[in-house]
Amino acid sequence: MHQIEISVVIPAKNEAKNLPSLLIEIANSLTPEATEIIIVDDGSDDDTLALLVSLTDSLPLACKIITHPNSCGQSTSVYHGVLSARGKWVVTLDADGQNDPADIPKLIATAKQESGVHFCIIGHRQQRKDTQWKRMQSKVANCIRQWILNDGTSDSGCGLKLLPRSTFLQLPYFDHMHRYIPALTKRLGGNIVCVPVNHRARLEGQSNYNAWNRGLAGVIDMLGVRWLMYRNKLDTINKAITYEK
User: Fold this and answer.
1) CA terminus-to-terminus distance, the chain
2) Which spans in 3-46 are helix H?
3) Per-residue model confidence (pLDDT) at position 228
């Protein structure tokens, strides 16, 4: 049996029309023997589950489907997928097809240059295909995030990320935590690297994880993450020297 190096985790809710082409693109972009795909069906009420069951058998790489009877949100879906992952490195991306799987090898190449234990490689979306309103929301949110967290990335909202599974499992879990992965990785003393990536228009359906209810909750989350970073003593532990006889 081949050793799995990359686990691609995809949270999906009502994305039956976008998943087939996305999964094929992932299979074509990575080495099948060293890759697995984990799709977390987050309470979909369309044909997502039935489609995945019929499609995954035809893909040339290992696939796992996790189903939530009720929607738990994007963060819980990502977290559940990572818990089930076997790869050394975890790649996350959105199920709507706006993240380009052809960029994953670029993230992997960047990760191979990292010498530290903890790091996060995150995409920086170029020429975004979102609406002007959504781009404006993102710009304001990123400015506030940088002011409060200084997390080392100008595009924290990009779903395309790579980090060691061992790093992810040391991050504190809470709802919406996927939006703060760079800051939480930095809290561990990890390096944050931004990589320019392609961004595509959504071809089918509409966003199931929207920004309308993020306002106050987002500010509270950021202040909570800032508190965690302020109270962090892990850097001292990482620099400690142990003597043994």
Assistant:
1) 40
2) 19-29
3) 74
pLDDT value at residue 205 = 61
Taking the model in full, what pTM does it have?
0.84
Instruction: Report which secondary-structure segment, H or E, holds 67.
Output: strand 62-68
Write the CB contacts of 172 (distance below 8 Å, at least 6 apart in sequence).
184, 228
Polymer length in residues for the chain: 245
Beta-bridged to residue 12, according to DSSP, are 41
With b for 16 or more beta-carbon neighbours within 10 A and e for fewer, the 25-57 pattern comes to bbbebbeeeebbbbbbbbbbeeebbebbeebbe
**β partners of residue 41:** 12, 67
Contacts of 114 (CB under 8 A, 6+ apart): 121, 191, 193
Please say whether the beta carbons of 60 and 23 come within 8 A: no
pLDDT of res. 175: 87
The tokens for 16 are 């039956």
Run means of pLDDT, 10 residues per run, the chain, 245 residues: 88 92 94 92 91 87 93 93 96 94 96 93 82 66 71 83 96 89 91 92 66 59 74 59 63
- Which token pair is 87? 């790869």
Q: Which residues contact 46 (CB under 8 A, 6 or more apart)?
A: 14, 16
Give residue 135's pLDDT: 65
pLDDT at position 130 is: 64
Beta-carbon contacts of 5 under 8 Å, excluding residues fewer than 6 positions away, are 31, 34, 35, 87, 88, 89
Burial 155-180, CB ≥16 within 10 A → b, else e: bbbbbbbbbbbebbeebeeeebbbbb
| Contact (Cβ atoms closer than 8 angstroms) between residue 8 and residue 31 | no
Alpha-carbon span 215 to 208, nearest angstrom: 17
